[in-house]
């Protein structure tokens, strides 16, 4: 990791790397600067560095680098200059959007600019092969190669920005803007899967915001500005969900808005509530929940009437008509009849929940199942004047369907009103938030309601009616459809009727259905048997029966009271156990979340460490390569001329020539093998031809014999078939005469069944085609995901294999280099040891020679010590002895003559003081005085030289000389 004294230096270095085409290295340099601990204080150059950093991230599509850099920059400028972070994020999103739009325009240009050289030529073989292998067109491939990567990066950009700004109170507006842009992205490109994920992300952000309330920069939802931003985001989410027709996600968005309103306990603006109820009514209509749809329209009408001052009378009349028709479209009977207790509880809970969503204040005394009903809604519409605001056709229709009793003319009078109502509708001019109102959508349900009312009124007047007459009274449907409607009405006890197709009539009245009689047959049998037993065996004490029952009544009441108390305690215990289990589950989920977060942080640290190690390893490999390259260059410059001379002199063959000879030898062998195979194939052809010539007449004879046998067999079977056909024909004629009497009835029944089955077949075929299309899309997505997973696994294995091979090569090169260095070090050590041994031998030889010389000189001096001393003799022998000593010691131990006055031993100075002579003048240790060197020898010098001689024959003379020679030898050895 490079270290920069100033941030500007890193920016300059990045620009230099970009100019030479190394954008990845430039991005890494800026990333190291941003994540370093040295530059944690905000500076103005850091903003320019972040601009360049996000530009590089967008160019290289590195979303992870962008996220790391933005998180680090948020830490730097959160408390100092948060507007800088806002500018950087806006620049980042703008660049990502521009790149995605540019990629899409390029893909369209490639598709439009398709150029074909020859219009009459067919497709190329490679194009056909590619189309059969890939199974997709050119546009699909261009989108997958150009557009999809940039759309993925743009989606990752939105997710990154939302994750960074999710708990930042100073950038709430930017968070809302990013969410709106992400919604528009999903809407523009029909990205339904990404829209669901985006809604889940925003939902999780709000949940975490409410869960962790002790964060420092947490947005405050009680503030009006923050609440308005969050509500605007949820309402935009609701609009996009309805436009994409994701009704389940739209309903969840409605629940999010309601939960947000309950959280802050504040009602939003009326304009937003109009959008809320408009989308809620659309969702309920799509889900066929007509009762909730009508209630939502009723709330929408109240809002428009109370707060919209620009609402015209025509628009108010249209909305009121829509409310009344929506209420009339609700089924007039209770659909909960015959349901189980669990289903009834679920329905009650759902009604209570929908009432809260719609915004009705329920009476706590009423049951939850009776909270919302058709009767109560119609009574409210009449009481609050909604019906009076509707059009005259709607009023007349309401009067006919709810108040008038016209058993025979109801449907005929309703039909023209429905024809007029179906033409009413359009866009509201003074209520822009309300969707386009079309009253024609209620016509099918109103026709069904009119049919049910007519059946109900006819059943009160008539007991029997012909099917043809009843079909004439109901012009909306055929009788088969009326029969289906009546079955549902009879099931829910709205009307009592029975159809007799044999007689062609419809029976009305309190008809007992077989299933109702079979339901209580065991009870009726038990009661009858009990009566018979009582008649056969009458009770003995009939009067005392009441007296026997009354004493035990108090015990029964007491036991029942205790049982209820025990049941209450059991219920309380179960509630406590359930609450404890819920708390335990929340604690486990929290611990799992913390562990997952810890694992994520550890994985991130490990990834950063691995990246550092990889960069370090790559740098080491580069250094090794550079070093090897330099060594190769030096070896080429040093050894190439010698090799050329040797090749020219010895006529050596090169490696390329060896490869050429091997290839030529292989080519020659291959040619010989091909010749042998051709000769063998020719021989096989001759043999096969000879065998076929011999077998041809035999095959022909067998074929002729087979023809004769098959002709006889054919004639026999043909005669047998003729006889059987005659017999079957006679039997069929008899059967035809017998069945011709019922042909007319059969044709009538067949036409009826075929028409019904044709309708059922068409409906099921449409459903089957839709199901097949969904299955094809799902399988296509699964195959695409599987292909991507296989490609990722293969690329990851290839990358790991390459890394393993590079590591093995590096280890081999390191081992070879280590062996080479050890060999060189061993050779150097051997050479040094050999020189050391040579020097020791020389020193031992010198010491031996010196010892021999010293021993010979000491015996000579001892023999001459008995002669009388003479000045001339002493003066002549002293220099000779000094020269011999110098020759014995060698150059390393040779001392200058005493005449130079460099050094005088202590015993000589003492002998000179004892003889009464003055000591020589003090001289320099490393060189004598110049006047002493130039002065001629005096008699005092001879005596000084003479004084030195006897000292060499003392007890310490030879020993000191030997020790001095040894010391001088050791010094030279060192």
UniProtKB/TrEMBL annotation:
<feature type="compositionally biased region" description="Low complexity">
    <location>
        <begin position="878"/>
        <end position="897"/>
    </location>
</feature>
<feature type="compositionally biased region" description="Polar residues">
    <location>
        <begin position="860"/>
        <end position="875"/>
    </location>
</feature>
<keyword id="KW-0694">RNA-binding</keyword>
<feature type="compositionally biased region" description="Basic and acidic residues">
    <location>
        <begin position="922"/>
        <end position="950"/>
    </location>
</feature>
<keyword id="KW-0647">Proteasome</keyword>
<comment type="function">
    <text>RNA-binding component of the eukaryotic translation initiation factor 3 (eIF-3) complex, which is involved in protein synthesis of a specialized repertoire of mRNAs and, together with other initiation factors, stimulates binding of mRNA and methionyl-tRNAi to the 40S ribosome. The eIF-3 complex specifically targets and initiates translation of a subset of mRNAs involved in cell proliferation.</text>
</comment>
<dbReference type="GO" id="GO:0071541">
    <property type="term" value="C:eukaryotic translation initiation factor 3 complex, eIF3m"/>
</dbReference>
<keyword id="KW-0175">Coiled coil</keyword>
<feature type="coiled-coil region">
    <location>
        <begin position="561"/>
        <end position="618"/>
    </location>
</feature>
<dbReference type="InterPro" id="IPR000717">
    <property type="entry name" value="PCI_dom"/>
</dbReference>
<comment type="similarity">
    <text>Belongs to the eIF-3 subunit A family.</text>
</comment>
<dbReference type="GO" id="GO:0033290">
    <property type="term" value="C:eukaryotic 48S preinitiation complex"/>
</dbReference>
<protein>
    <recommendedName>
        <fullName>Eukaryotic translation initiation factor 3 subunit A</fullName>
    </recommendedName>
</protein>
<feature type="domain" description="PCI">
    <location>
        <begin position="316"/>
        <end position="513"/>
    </location>
</feature>
<feature type="compositionally biased region" description="Low complexity">
    <location>
        <begin position="951"/>
        <end position="974"/>
    </location>
</feature>
<dbReference type="GO" id="GO:0016282">
    <property type="term" value="C:eukaryotic 43S preinitiation complex"/>
</dbReference>
<keyword id="KW-0963">Cytoplasm</keyword>
<dbReference type="InterPro" id="IPR054711">
    <property type="entry name" value="eIF3a_PCI_TPR-like"/>
</dbReference>
<dbReference type="Pfam" id="PF01399">
    <property type="entry name" value="PCI"/>
</dbReference>
<keyword id="KW-0648">Protein biosynthesis</keyword>
<dbReference type="GO" id="GO:0043614">
    <property type="term" value="C:multi-eIF complex"/>
</dbReference>
<dbReference type="GO" id="GO:0003729">
    <property type="term" value="F:mRNA binding"/>
</dbReference>
<dbReference type="GO" id="GO:0003743">
    <property type="term" value="F:translation initiation factor activity"/>
</dbReference>
<comment type="subunit">
    <text>Component of the eukaryotic translation initiation factor 3 (eIF-3) complex.</text>
</comment>
<dbReference type="Pfam" id="PF22591">
    <property type="entry name" value="eIF3a_PCI_TPR-like"/>
</dbReference>
<keyword id="KW-0396">Initiation factor</keyword>
<dbReference type="GO" id="GO:0001732">
    <property type="term" value="P:formation of cytoplasmic translation initiation complex"/>
</dbReference>
<feature type="region of interest" description="Disordered">
    <location>
        <begin position="806"/>
        <end position="974"/>
    </location>
</feature>
<feature type="coiled-coil region">
    <location>
        <begin position="656"/>
        <end position="693"/>
    </location>
</feature>
<dbReference type="InterPro" id="IPR027512">
    <property type="entry name" value="EIF3A"/>
</dbReference>
<feature type="compositionally biased region" description="Basic and acidic residues">
    <location>
        <begin position="806"/>
        <end position="854"/>
    </location>
</feature>
<feature type="coiled-coil region">
    <location>
        <begin position="93"/>
        <end position="120"/>
    </location>
</feature>
<dbReference type="GO" id="GO:0071540">
    <property type="term" value="C:eukaryotic translation initiation factor 3 complex, eIF3e"/>
</dbReference>
<dbReference type="GO" id="GO:0002188">
    <property type="term" value="P:translation reinitiation"/>
</dbReference>
<dbReference type="GO" id="GO:0000502">
    <property type="term" value="C:proteasome complex"/>
</dbReference>
